[in-house]
Amino acid sequence: MSLASVFNIAGSGMSAQTTRLNTVASNIANAETVSSSMDQTYRTRHPVFATVLQGQGSGDGGSLFGSQDEAGQGVQVSGIVEDPSNLEARYEPTHPAADKNGYVYYPNVNVVSEMADMISASRSFQTNADIMNTAKTMMQKVLTLGQ
User: Fold this and answer.
1) Nearest to residue 110, comparing CAs of 133, 83, 130, 92?
2) Can you name the residues that pair with 106 across neighbouring β-strands?
3) Closest CA to 105 of 127, 86, 90
4) Among candidates 118, 117, 120, 92, which has minimal Cα distance to 106?
5) Which residues contact 57 (CB under 8 A, 6 or more apart)?
6) Percentage helix, strand, coil, to 5, in the chain?
7) Alpha carbons 107 and 144: distance in angstroms, whole number
8) d(CA 51, CA 46)
9) Rounded Cα–Cα distance for residues 14 and 127 (Å)
10) How far apart are CA 8 and CA 75, in angstroms?
11) Neighbours of 35 (CB within 10 A)
12) pLDDT on residue 53
């Protein structure tokens, strides 16, 4: 693995955390939306990350440990899933979106949990940016070795 691949790995981490942050923003924006049916009510969404592993045919000379020490090549978002937990039904017969029984349905968004997820995504993004800056500094130092 070359030092240059650090930029691709950290960049994929930054991209994944951007997706996570966008998902959190969508969840918080829809936290108080209501619907008159459970099928149309917004459900919390979460990104699913997967490790991108080094290719099998890389020709790196083989390893005694096989795939156990396989280096990761980054992260990818393999999808965004909806939270299947129960929605909140509130009896509000005067609400304009109430169903025939007087209930409105609120999303299953936990704003406190989403805020914690937002902070975590922000810090992970910043860590990947710091990794890129450190790799850049190391490459600059390598260029000055011959002087």
Assistant:
1) 83
2) 88
3) 90
4) 92
5) none
6) 40, 20, 40
7) 57
8) 17
9) 9
10) 10
11) 16
12) 83
Which residues, in sequence order, are CB contacts of 33 under 8 Å at separation 6+? Answer: 41, 42, 106, 107
Angle at 71 between CA 68 and CA 72, to 5 degrees: 115
Check residue 69 and give its pLDDT. 57
Tell how many helices (H) and how many strands (E) occur in the chain. Answer: 2, 4
Strands (E), 5-145: 45-53, 72-82, 88-91, 103-106
pLDDT along the chain (147 residues), means of 10: 82 96 97 89 95 62 51 89 92 91 94 97 97 92 84
Residue 57's pLDDT is 41
Q: Both tokens of residue 46?
A: 């979460």
DSSP state of 41: S
130/144 Cα distance (integer angstroms): 21
**Token code pair at residue 57:** 């045919």
pLDDT value at residue 30: 95
